[in-house]
Amino acid sequence: MSDLKLEEVSPVYLNGHSNFLQSGYWAGLREKTGWKSVPLKLTWKGESYPLLVLVRTFKGTLSLAYVPHGPSVEVDPEEREYFIHKLSRDLLEFVPLGTFFVRYDFLWGETGEDSLPEPLNFKGISKAPMDIQPPDTVIINLNQSENDLLAAMHKKTRYNIKLAGKKGVVVETGTESDLDAWYELYRTTSERDRISIHSRDYYGKVFSMADGTGGNPESRLFLARHEGDLLAGIIVLIDGKRATYLYGASSNEKRNLMPAYALQWEAIKAAKAAGCDSYDMFGIPPADDPEHPMHGLYRFKRGFGGDIHHRLGAWDYRYSSIVYPLYRIVEAARKFYYKTLRKR
């Protein structure tokens, strides 16, 4: 009997594992944006794990498969090559015939600012031209008191949290009716920082489908106001024992009042009160590099304490030696456009 087995299951099986990108909620959301979800149960050495595979089909003939932040199973480094090859070959039973590669956003990695994971060096597996999910992040341990959480922060972060309160910044929990106002802020953020965003309808689905029922995650919208002016807002997802900061938007006005710091602190306290044991900042640059265009984001998120996690990021297992190289060329060109030309 093989030590790896796959079987198709209901999307509900995926819920409740504190990994929203591998949840039934995420499967349902992506189904509404043109993907097909394939919910599976992965059994490895007698232990079972949820496995969400997303499939995108082009013109009815060619397809790609994508595993966001999965598989959620720890595999010994010396067994990873066998595991990936076996899993990828077995997946062919569950994906369309024309699937020419599968992309994994592996969670495997290292913890620590200077502890980078060794790249994979396996036959048939290559680093993707671009990461889909952020491979580097800060995760805050919530199994400590609020005083200890504050003490672990950078002194400037503590100062800015206090400053926001002294200046009259108030943080409140919003509802779905507040999403239009939040999205206008997000559009402002997109224009200022030159980042790509989805439509208002997409974020409405992200928020409304995470309703906390049936094992689904719960979405929280935190809004920072000052004298009636909406200054900033963030969307946080609470899934089991983990909270994840997904999206942040801010105005160009009154930025000196530090609303972003007040928002994160209130969200961290709310996650702790909800029973979470960790808060994922969900994405930082790979190093404390002043030359990096997102260095300010690194300093901001790092200021709240926590541990830096460096993951392997996105890697591709190719099924076709003809179609896959052509797709890589197209994807590399797309990356150049969004990362270089659009930033100018």
TrEMBL record:
This protein's UniProt keywords: Acyltransferase, Cell shape, Cell wall biogenesis/degradation, Peptidoglycan synthesis, Transferase
PROSITE patterns associated with the record: FEMABX, GNAT
One of the GO biological process terms: regulation of cell shape
InterPro entries: Acyl_CoA_acyltransferase (IPR016181), FEMABX (IPR003447), GNAT_dom (IPR000182), PG_Glycine_Bridge_Synth (IPR050644)
UniProt superkingdom: Bacteria
Record flagged with keyword Cell inner membrane: no
PANTHER family associated with the record: LIPID II:GLYCINE GLYCYLTRANSFERASE
Protein name: Lipid II:glycine glycyltransferase (Peptidoglycan interpeptide bridge formation enzyme)
Organism: Spirochaeta isovalerica
Taxon lineage: Bacteria, Pseudomonadati, Spirochaetota, Spirochaetia, Spirochaetales
